[in-house]
Design brief:
Radius of gyration: 20 Å
CATH class: Alpha Beta
Shape: elongated
Number of domains: 1
Strand order of the largest sheet: 1-9-10
CATH topology: D-Maltodextrin-Binding Protein, domain 2
Number of helices: 4
Largest sheet: 3 strands, mixed
CATH architecture: 3-Layer(aba) Sandwich
Number of strands: 10
CATH superfamily: Periplasmic binding protein-like II
Structural class: alpha/beta
Order of helices and strands: EEHEEEEHEHEEHE
Helix content: 25-40%
Length: 176
């Protein structure tokens, strides 16, 4: 039916931010830092930061002077030294390799999040769909392996969806 691969969040900051404010060592230390928020566009609700402390998942509500609805803008603000952020690896992988961002609170890494690929049920996948699925699995496997420091297990979840037939609207409609 499909393969899986994981995606990992990372708490990050820029070297310039850490030079001015230091590195938080514990989750409680985050209260003394400018934590940049990410808001869901649809709901305008802020996403909590997730960590694991002593085997138990813990959440932190980021408190800072900026919130974003765009991941790339959040990454840019963190790179500019505006504060700390917690983001998916695909946003921070290249800036981390370039030395523009550094991980923080690594001993509290959050549980992995699956990324879902959903495609229509067919007997044979088109070459384009197969190529896209292979590309996504390979890309996220590389990003996650770098963030976890090891070979990552698979966790992009693939599902085939059988389309539902829509009832015909021909004929008369009930009066309202």
């Amino acid at each position: 039916m499909g393969a899986e691969q994981v995606e990992q969040h990372a708490a990050i900051g820029s070297p310039s931010y850490f030079a001015k404010h230091g590195h938080p060592k514990t989750l409680d230390n985050l209260a003394a830092h400018n934590c940049l928020g990410f808001m869901m566009r649809e709901t305008r609700l802020g996403r909590q930061w997730r960590f694991v402390r002593e085997g138990v998942e813990a959440t932190v509500t980021p408190k800072g002077n900026m919130s974003f609805t765009d991941g790339a803008a959040l990454c840019d603000a963190a790179r500019a030294g505006c504060g700390l952020a917690q983001m998916h690896g695909y946003y921070v992988d290249d800036p981390m390799r370039a030395g523009e961002l550094e991980p923080v609170l690594e001993k509290f890494k959050p549980p992995v999040d699956p990324i879902w690929l959903v495609y229509p049920q067919t007997r044979h996948l088109s070459p384009k769909v197969r190529a896209f699925i292979d590309f996504m699995v390979a890309s996220f496997r590389q990003t996650t392996a770098r963030m976890l420091g090891a070979v990552a297990p698979a966790s992009i979840c693939l599902f085939r969806v059988t389309p539902h037939k829509t009832p015909s609207l021909s004929g008369s409609r009930p009066a309202r």
